[in-house]
Design a protein that fits this description.
This protein is about 40% helix and about 20% strand. With about 270 residues, the protein is of the alpha/beta class. The protein has a single domain, classed as TIM Barrel (Alpha-Beta Barrel), CATH 3.20.20. Helix 3 links the parallel strand 3 and strand 4. Helix 3 packs parallel to helix 4 and helix 5 packs parallel to helix 7. About 40% of the residues are buried. The mean pLDDT is about 95.
Length: about 270
């Protein structure tokens, strides 16, 4: 396995601070969810066609990779720009040598009604371009898709090697009370990238905690991944951008490296 953190956890950091932290703390790479005030990564100058080659070189000099582009593309809504925006992320992933683009197939928050047929049609439409770019689109276990039985049906219907799953360990547990065994039985073969964080449920609300300070079955989840020789990234998704009260990234990212290695060894 490899270690990664999402830039959603450090919304106020500059690019050089992101790279320095990843390198100094012993990460293998990062997951891009915007930078600074800009959430649309293809719109950031560092990743423009004129500069992306230099940015990729800078990453390589530090021994770092971008494992996933966590896009803001909404495949479940009637957004007419969704396919064009997804295409921009696919092209950026190709230019960066990034294997995965996460697309949004449900809104954040509580699971709600989703036009599942629209999601299916758009994934089918995007799959050929993704495959041609050697990129895989990832549907996250989020919202209605944290019911991983439903996600399994979607991925089976799309039936493309260019469309797979991002396993956020938190959401199936908190949204639907799934066990790790149920989740793994449903989507294990599709998992390419993992979001890790810890949490507890307080008065029906999910409260995020430092890894090891919540009660998510993290060791069991890692055991499933370790058992199949998972060589993708375990990405720390610390949602500081939308939860200012959470601990700062400097504390959380350093703690994560120690704790996730410990859990992996014990799994």
């Amino acid at each position: 396995m490899k270690l990664s953190f999402s830039t959603v956890g450090c919304p106020n950091w500059r690019w050089n601070e992101v790279l320095a932290a990843a390198s100094d703390l012993g990460y293998d790479g990062i997951e891009l969810r915007g930078l600074g005030e800009e959430l649309k990564t293809p719109s950031i100058d560092l990743f423009s066609p004129a500069r992306v080659s230099g940015t990729r070189g800078e990453l390589a000099m530090r021994g770092l990779s971008v494992f996933c582009l966590a896009s803001d593309v909404l495949l479940h809504s009637e957004d007419g720009n969704a396919l064009v925006d997804a295409g921009a992320y696919i092209e950026l992933a190709r230019a960066l040598g990034t294997p995965y683009v996460r697309v949004l197939c449900d809104s954040w928050g509580e699971p709600g009604p989703v036009d599942e047929d629209l999601v299916y049609k758009r994934l089918r439409a995007l799959a050929p371009a993704a495959a041609a770019a050697s990129v895989t689109l990832l549907v996250e276990t989020n919202g209605v898709w944290s019911d991983t039985g439903k996600l399994k049906q979607l991925l089976g219907a799309v039936d493309s090697s260019a469309v797979a799953a991002l396993w956020d360990v938190n959401h199936p547990v908190r949204n639907f009370g799934e066990t790790v065994q149920t989740t793994w039985n449903n989507i294990g073969p599709y998992v390419r990238h993992v979001h890790l964080k810890d949490s507890v449920s307080e008065n029906g609300k999910t409260v995020y905690k430092l890894l090891g300070y919540g009660d998510l079955p993290l060791r069991e989840a890692l055991s499933r991944l370790k058992g199949v020789g998972f060589d993708g990234a375990l990405s720390m998704e610390w949602v500081k951008r939308w939860n200012a009260e959470l601990e700062d990234a400097g504390i959380v990212f350093a703690h994560y490296v120690y704790q996730v290695k410990k859990l992996w060894q014990e799994a």
